[in-house]
Structures are given as structure tokens and as C-alpha cells.
UniProtKB/TrEMBL annotation:
PROSITE patterns: HAMP. Pfam families: HAMP (PF00672). The gene is mcpB_1. Residues 185-237 form the HAMP domain. One of its GO terms (biological process) is signal transduction. This is Methyl-accepting chemotaxis protein McpB. Residues 268-295 form a coiled coil. Keywords: Coiled coil, Membrane, Transmembrane, Transmembrane helix. InterPro entries: HAMP_dom. GO terms for cellular component: membrane. The chain crosses the membrane at residues 20-41, 164-182.
Length: 538
């Protein structure tokens, strides 16, 4: 029955591998457009600001030259300047007016009309930029109106949008492809083994085993499944043996009763022997009833263990959720640590660069002190020859100070070199640490994927355990029914055997008919029990 249900569900379901690949694809499909849109809007705003800044800068520059030409009254140079600016590809028009709005020079006759147009907001909207013409320290004598062609801005925005769309499509396809490959390599074989073993067990073949290698949760699940199949196989085998014994005894009893009905006289002669055989058969039936009760208890215990396993699966599923959350938090903290650690090599490189300069300066100072020492000695000798004791003492003090300075600078340079060596070693260690942190980031990403896959596997195990629990409850109910039937039939049959003979030594007809009816019921009950047991292969 479970096999039919699994086949019916399997025709409509989607595999775990495809679900993981689809989920990752949808995640990338959501994240990449959001990030791309944010970056696109930011870059578009930056380009627009640069565009507006470029227009304002050109307008102000033209205003500086125009102020000089207007003050000199040289409108020809002003016209040449306007036409030269118009020859640039991205400038639409240039208009120079005086303070009253009269046009002094214009690049085209189709330029927008108007006087003093001032304001950043209006200029940005119309792609027009206005700058006042103000001499140094004077008042405004005119205005420069500059119009830029927006085609370059539109082309840059369109090219950026196309590049981001192609990148997003390539990233989504690559993510789905990698997720499908990794999931197939990790989950496909263990899940196929567990599915095949579960289908065989649901069909009644308890000898099947799930061969899943490894010490992970899938391996533990396969071992638990194999142990459960082994115990169920032993239980069914014991039931089969007991049923065979009971059936054999009942068949012998039924044959004896039929022979006794046909030949009453022969039955009377052999009644004592028959009663003894019947008592033995009753004992066998009592033993079978006890075994049936044990079977019912075993089914009940198995059902309780299955419920406990179901609870453990729920706990494992919750633990998987917590583990995935913890791994994501650790990944976030590790990324922050990586960014902070990446700044240290830059500081150390700057320190090494400055240390080289400082070392060279200290070496020059030490060399200068060393070169001054002979000169000071000569000064001391000349002072001694001339008898100037003050100069001699000063020269000696200076010589001693130069020697001390040379020694101090030499030691300081050695310490600086040692510090630079330590800084280089620390820099190499930091680079190795960065590589290790990157490797740890990759491991955490793999762990996150593994936690998600484990949660989906546990969810599938939970569904299978629900089906097995339903079957075990049905078996427990059937076993209790059989035990109740044994408890009802055995006392009546024992009573009939004890009072089988009447006072005149004849077998009462009513008792014989009742015995025959009970025997037939017992045979039918045994057939039902046998059919129930042979549903399972051992």
C-alpha cells in the first residue's frame, strides 16, 4: 500500500536537487536585480551630477573670458569664442547677453529666447546652464547661457543598463548550474539508496538494506532504518513459525473431529486419546494466543519507538534550522573581520615606506657625525697649541657629544631596521591570515548549503516516518483483534472438550456441532493471520 502511495506522489513531485537549484536561482534572481538597480541608480545620479558640473564649469569659464572681451568692447573675439565652443560635439548652443538681456553673441539663430535665466533647478531640467558675467570686483554685466546635448548622457545610461542585465542573466544561470551539480554529487546516491530500501520495506521485503557510506546524518539514518528492518523481519519470522504450528494443530484437530462425526463408535473408543491430543492442541493454541499478544505488544512498542523517532526527527529539523542560522551569523561576522583585517597591510606598507626614509636620514646623520669628528679633533689640537683652554675643553666636549650622537644614531638605525623586519614578517603573517580567512569563508558557505540540504532530507524522513507509523498502528489494531478472538474461542473450546461425553457415553449432537463451528472459525482466523504474516518477506 505504501508503495502505491509513493508511486502516486512521485508522479507529481519535484526532486530535492531541482528544488535546491530552483531556490538558489530565485534567490539570485531577486538579489542581483536589487543590487544592480541600486548600483545603476547610484551611477546614473553620479553621471548626471558630473554632467551638470561639467555644464556649470564650462559656463563659468566662458563667463571669465566674456567679461574681458565685453569690457574691451571686442565682440568679434566674443563671437569667435561662441562659434568655437559650438564646434564641440556635446554643446548644443551658446548665448551671451548683456545685463538687459540683449544678445551679444550666439552660436545659432534657433537658440532659446529669453533674458536672465538663473537657477540650478531650471537649468538641470532643460539641460541649460547659466553663469553671470562679473568682472573682478565689479557688478554683473551680462550672462552666459550654455545648452548641452543630452544624447551622451542617455547613451551612457542605456549601455550601463544593458551590461547589468547581461551580468544578472549570466550570474543566475551559473548559480543554478553550480547548485544542481553540487547537490547531485552530495545527495543523489544516498537518497536513491534510502528510497529503494524504503520501497522494498513498504512492499514487505524486510531483508533489504540501505547501503549508505559515511558518518554523517544520512549514514545514521540508514543504520537506524536497517536496524528497524532487521527487528521487524525477526518478528514476522517468529509469527510465521507460530502460525504454522497452530495451523498444523488445528488441521489435525479438524480432521479428527470430522472422522469422529462419521464414525461415532470409533470416536468413542478413541475419545480419551482425542481429549489428550485436544488438550495438547489447546496448549498450543494458548501458546499461540500468548505469542499473538506478544506480537501486538511488539507492534505497540514499535509504534511508540516510531513516534519517538518522529520526535527526534522534529528535534533534528529544529536543530538544523538553528545551525543554519548560526552559520549565517558566523559568516557575517567573518566577513566584517576580513574587511577590518584587509586594512592592516596598507598601514604596514606605509610604515615600511616611511621607515626606509627614516633609516636613510639616520644613516646620513651618523655619517655627518663621523665626518665632523676629525675636524673637532683638529680644532682641539690647534686650541691646545695656542693655549686656549676654554676652546680645548669645548672641542673635547663636542667630540664626546659627536661620538655619543654617532653611537645613538647607529643603535637607533639598528632598532629601526629590526622594527621594519618585524613589520615585514607581520605583513606576511597578515597576508597568510587573509588567505586563511578567505578559505574559512568558502567553508562557511559550503556549510550553509549543507545545512539547507540536511533540513530538506530530514523533512523527507519525517514524511516517510508518518507513513510507517500509520502502517504500524494498523498492524497493532489487527494483532489486538486476533488476540481478542483467541481469548473468546479458547475457553469455549476447553469447556466443550471437558463436557464432550454425556452420562450415557454418547457424544451430544449439539456439542459436536458447536465444536465443528468453533473449529471452522479457528481455521478461518488462522488463515487470516497467515495471510497477514505472508504479506512480508523475510
Amino acid at each position: 500500500m505504501l508503495k502505491r502511495i509513493n508511486l502516486a506522489i512521485g508522479s507529481r513531485r519535484i526532486s530535492v536537487i531541482n528544488k535546491i537549484a530552483l531556490a538558489l536561482g530565485l534567490l539570485l534572481l531577486f538579489i542581483i536585480p536589487v543590487v544592480g538597480s541600486s548600483f545603476f541608480l547610484r551611477e546614473q545620479a553620479l553621471i548626471r551630477r558630473e554632467y551638470q558640473g561639467k555644464g556649470q564649469e564650462i559656463a563659468r569659464t566662458v563667463a571669465l573670458f566674456a567679461a574681458e572681451y565685453i569690457l574691451l568692447g571686442n565682440l568679434d573675439f566674443l563671437t569667435d569664442l561662441v562659434h568655437k565652443l559650438k564646434s564641440y560635439g556635446n554643446i548644443e548652443y551658446v548665448i551671451i547677453t548683456d545685463g538687459s538681456g540683449r544678445v551679444l553673441a550666439a552660436s545659432t539663430t534657433n537658440s532659446p529666447a529669453g533674458g536672465k535665466t538663473v537657477g540650478v533647478k531650471t537649468a538641470a531640467t532643460a539641460n541649460e546652464f547659466t553663469a553671470p558675467i562679473t568682472p573682478f570686483g565689479g557688478e554683473t554685466i551680462g550672462y552666459v547661457r550654455l545648452g548641452l546635448n543630452p544624447a551622451q548622457l542617455k547613451n551612457s545610461t542605456l549601455a550601463m543598463a544593458v551590461d547589468w542585465a547581461l551580468f544578472a542573466l549570466a550570474a543566475v544561470l551559473a548559480g543554478i548550474f553550480l547548485a544542481a551539480i553540487l547537490t547531485k554529487r552530495i545527495l543523489q546516491k544516498p537518497l536513491a539508496e534510502l528510497t529503494a530500501a524504503a520501497e522494498l520495506v513498504s512492499a514487505g521485503d524486510f531483508s533489504s538494506r540501505a547501503n549508505v557510506l559515511g558518518g554523517d546524518e544520512l549514514g545514521d539514518l540508514a543504520n537506524s532504518f536497517n536496524t528497524m528492518s532487521f527487528h521487524l523481519a525477526n518478528l514476522i519470522q517468529s509469527v510465521k513459525i507460530n502460525i504454522a504450528d497452530v495451523q498444523k494443530g488445528m488441521e489435525q484437530l479438524h480432521s479428527s473431529l470430522q472422522t469422529a462425526g462419521r464414525t461415532n463408535s470409533r470416536f468413542l473408543r478413541n475419545l480419551a486419546c482425542l481429549k489428550e491430543n485436544a488438550e495438547e492442541q489447546l496448549k498450543a493454541l494458548a501458546l499461540s494466543a500468548s505469542l499473538a499478544e506478544q506480537l501486538a505488544n511488539r507492534f505497540q512498542q514499535t509504534s511508540e519507538r516510531q513516534k519517538a523517532s518522529f520526535n527526534l526527527t522534529n528535534n533534528a529539523l529544529e536543530a538544523g534550522e538553528k545551525g543554519a542560522t548560526a552559520v549565517r551569523a558566523a559568516t557575517s561576522k567573518l566577513n566584517d573581520f576580513y574587511h577590518e583585517l584587509a586594512e592592516s597591510p596598507k598601514l604596514q606598507a606605509l610604515l615600511l615606506e616611511k621607515g626606509e626614509l627614516w633609516s636613510a636620514g639616520i644613516a646620513n646623520l651618523a655619517a655627518l657625525s663621523d665626518h665632523l669628528a676629525p675636524f673637532v679633533v683638529e680644532v682641539a689640537l690647534e686650541a691646545a697649541k695656542s693655549g686656549n683652554e676654554g676652546l680645548t675643553a669645548a672641542a673635547e666636549n663636542l667630540s664626546q657629544a659627536l661620538r655619543d650622537t654617532y653611537t645613538y644614531l647607529k643603535n637607533l638605525r639598528l632598532e629601526l631596521i629590526a622594527l621594519m623586519d618585524a613589520c615585514r614578517a607581520n605583513r606576511e603573517a597578515l597576508e597568510k591570515s587573509l588567505l586563511q580567512v578567505e578559505a574559512l569563508q568558502d567553508n562557511l558557505a559550503t556549510s550553509t548549503t549543507t545545512w539547507v540540504e540536511l533540513r530538506q532530507i530530514l523533512q523527507g524522513k519525517k514524511e516517510v516516518e508518518l507513513e510507517i507509523q500509520g502502517e504500524l498502528e494498523w498492524l497493532a489494531t489487527a494483532s489486538h483483534t486476533l488476540t481478542k478472538d483467541f481469548a473468546d474461542y479458547l475457553p469455549a473450546l476447553n469447556k466443550l472438550l471437558q463436557g464432550s461425553l454425556s452420562s450415557d457415553g454418547q457424544l451430544p449432537l449439539a456439542d459436536w456441532q458447536e465444536i465443528d463451528s468453533l473449529t471452522k472459525k479457528l481455521l478461518r482466523m488462522i488463515e487470516r493471520l497467515k495471510a497477514l504474516a505472508w504479506q512480508y518477506k523475510t
